[in-house]
TrEMBL record:
Residues 11-233 form the Xylose isomerase-like TIM barrel domain. This is Sugar phosphate isomerase/epimerase. InterPro entries: IolE/XylAMocC-like (IPR050312), Xyl_isomerase-like_sf (IPR036237), Xyl_isomerase-like_TIM-brl (IPR013022). It comes from Nocardioides immobilis. SUPFAM superfamilies: Xylose isomerase-like (SSF51658).
Amino acid sequence: MLDASPHDLADAAAHAGFDYCGVRIVSPDDGSPLHGLIGDSEEQQRFLHRCRRLGVALLDTEAVWIRRETDLRLMGPLLDATAALGARYVLTVGFNDDREQLIDQLGTFADLAAERGLYLPLEFITYTAVPNLAEAWDVVQCVGRENVGVLIDALQFFRAGAEFDVLDLIPHQRIPYAQIADGPLLAPASIEGLRTEARTARILPGQGELDLPRLISALPVQIPLSVEAPTRALADRPFGDAARILHATMTRVLAKTPTTEGTMPNDG
């Protein structure tokens, strides 16, 4: 729903029965549509008022892609906006192949986030400098900040080899929430194929071949589950209708997951 404004997302989440929504307020790459909440206190207050009226909270803001040239000392306005909007998490991705520099950058960013009571979930993505869960957890440990953890994206988890053994080793407090989507068992053969699948061709939860119940059962109990399933299949539907479909498919997955039976998905 990249064309949706923050207000549209809050409306869609409430319409579908989600507890949270997430908003993109910083562009990971040039050309992505954005709706300004940074540095606009009046617009922030309007959005907060709408969320409170709807009974929807903001889970996270996204997405900070850390590249070699990224100066994270300039991210103060993003962090200020995230804190002002009541979110706790700033989704972060490592795109710097210089591992030591990336660790230093994450440390700087984490210190700035900590000053505002914010937490940085590091998302591993198969076509980035942090391609799998083992590498993400190693980076987090090297950063050495209590407010840095690992974000589990179900599609990326399975595409990176389904490292359940590594997942079992990570302290629960370092996995603040997870993103759920489905896909075919067979991964795309190329980097470009993986990128296209992740951005526009995911399958709705429970309608693919990934073992989502096993993954959800392995996650910490009671963390928010964010439905992260960008797909052309829903592109032409109104935002509220698309959110309702995602909520319904996710609810069916949870019903098949023993440790979460009877719970509801949290984030649209």
